[in-house]
């Protein structure tokens, strides 16, 4: 049910959440009166906080304490009362551009580096999923003569992963090669490489393994069966990684210092999830945000009890997908206490997803 709040109640809810995020201490009317320009008396603030408590947006952990936000209070705060920080978004994008070396690193190293940067900036556990292997598409093929009767096939995907395979030609073909001049063989391999790139660029690796290689021009049919076998082998190599390595995780030690994680049992369940049960996390991280006409937000936000996965029911998970073109291939997420700096965290996740999307697409 939609909770209706007037402007004053919204302002006091905003101030209460802000104060609690900053201090981790229950909030009273006196603290709000002193620190925020609410323009009303302490009694008016107390009355408004009472209304917010009855609506289920605030609660008292003890009868003598101030109030703290409930999951529903955080939800209204996130959906209605804040705007992600453009400043933090620009800073994160700049850090990623300066510190990630796309020319020198493998894709896995790049994503783990990005996770480290985001964890340091956000103070949260950062989770970045590796691109799904079945999404990888051919970017470039090159055939190179290594020695008589042997060539190397180099395949580069659009996720910048490289596979190379030594290809032994059958005996009859090897004899033909031996009879040819090296310059002739190199020219033939370059022509074949150009032909394969023109025909196959943009296809998935799984498509390559099942192509009808008889459709190759007749002069290249001698390579057809061997190439089909090699591509099938490459596809087997690029099956999805084991669950323990599908997600780059950084920032665990920092976030577990937060007071919300003081109980050893809670820490152990989260660590077990991150280390042993990552497969359970994937559906929550790799989830498209529900966009509506009133929101341009490109993230999915699960707060506290909105997480059906028991170990993180006391946490907030903010995630977004990164894309190759229009196709989502992986995801970026931050996991922290519900007492989270949402303006910053949302901006960081959006900026990281945009950066990775642009980098992969270009």
UniProtKB/TrEMBL annotation:
Q: Tell me the keywords, alphabetical order.
A: Repressor, Stress response, Transcription, Transcription regulation
Gene3D superfamilies from the UniProt entry: 3.30.450.40, Heat-inducible transcription repressor hrca homolog, domain 3, Winged helix-like DNA-binding domain superfamily/Winged helix DNA-binding domain
GO terms for molecular function, please?
DNA binding
Ranges for the Heat-inducible transcription repressor HrcA C-terminal domain? 108-346
- Entry's InterPro entries? GAF-like_dom_sf (IPR029016), HrcA (IPR002571), HrcA_C (IPR021153), WH-like_DNA-bd_sf (IPR036388), WH_DNA-bd_sf (IPR036390), WHTH_transcript_rep_HrcA_IDD (IPR023120)
Q: Which GO terms describe its biological process?
A: negative regulation of DNA-templated transcription
Spell out the Pfam families in the cross-references: HrcA
* Similarity comment text for this entry: Belongs to the HrcA family.
Q: What does this protein do?
A: Negative regulator of class I heat shock genes (grpE-dnaK-dnaJ and groELS operons). Prevents heat-shock induction of these operons.
UniProt-recorded name of the protein: Heat-inducible transcription repressor HrcA
Q: What's the source species for this entry? A: Chroococcidiopsis cubana SAG 39.79
Species classification: Bacteria, Bacillati, Cyanobacteriota, Cyanophyceae, Chroococcidiopsidales
Protein's gene: hrcA
